[in-house]
Amino acid sequence: MNLDSASYKVEDGEGLRRVMHVQVPATVLQQEFLARLGALRRRTRIRGFRPGKAPIKLIRQRYGQDVWNELTRETIERSFREGAQNRKLRVVGGGEVKTSQAREGVDLEYEATFDVLPDIEFNRLDELAYEQPQVEISERDVDRTIERLRRRDAQWEDVDRPAREGDRMVANIRASRRRQTVDAGEIKEAPLMLGETRLMPQLEERLVGLSAARKKKFRLKMPAEYPDETLRGKRVLYEVEVVSVSEPALPDLDEEFIGKLGVESGSIEELRSNVRATLERELRSVCEEHKRQALFDQLLSANPGLTPRTLVDQEVEQA
Q1: Is the domain of 244 the same as that of 261?
Q2: pLDDT average per 10 residues of sequence, the chain (319 residues)
Q3: Strands of the chain, DSSP E
Q4: Boundary residue ending a domain (68, 89, 116)
């Protein structure tokens, strides 16, 4: 489909907003519409007719609307893309399109509202500076990583003692206010990793020290940043029943375990070397990202400018 005969008019909106008015001649659409109906006819089997020999009128009657809708959508997408490219508009996002009802024999007209990227001329580049932080991987970092690998492969064994940090607790918990269970305030046999869970710190503090089969009630004041705004700063009653408490039985740091980690030799020295190399690689990546962000922040501060509304809206939606 040739869109050379389409007409375009671009108007400046507020800031980086632009409005493009597009008109595609009816003759262009009609020619492409008939061509698509003909192609569809050649590959369509309709009972009572030889393959590809059904009357074009019947093809239009059965499939015409779908073909026309698809043609209209593709024409809008393509004409908008070509119009923006030919005018060197750097479009942000897909834009918002308003169109009149498209039908045969009438020009297709639509209006696209979109944002463009600003033209930026960077200044004060010679003032950008960054001081690389002095960070290195220690033997303790290697030890902690190997310990996490062991905990990941641990077997959990029930214990008959008060729970402590590092244990796994299975518990039934109900949170209520004025005798009504709060939203998402009841969990059954929830596995909680003490010291690693996303529970409120003040709630986790109350769970530490409880043993299996223990029941306890207590009230907590909800923090100011609590997700449910109606409960912020309010006191909520918690009822806890501990089902079990278990501790991890870590695997021995032997050749069999080391082999499971991909070190075929089973050597602890080779394992430590591999862990150190991985941590150093991750550290370099974090430092590089930190440097990039720091320089970018300086660049923005030295070169303030407009931000496309589309990008702002996307950030708001994701927040």
Answers
A1: no
A2: 93 91 95 94 89 90 93 95 93 84 88 86 78 91 95 93 94 94 90 85 94 96 91 95 96 94 94 96 94 84 67 57
A3: 7-12, 17-24, 91-99, 108-116, 155-158, 168-177, 180-193, 215-221, 235-249
A4: 116
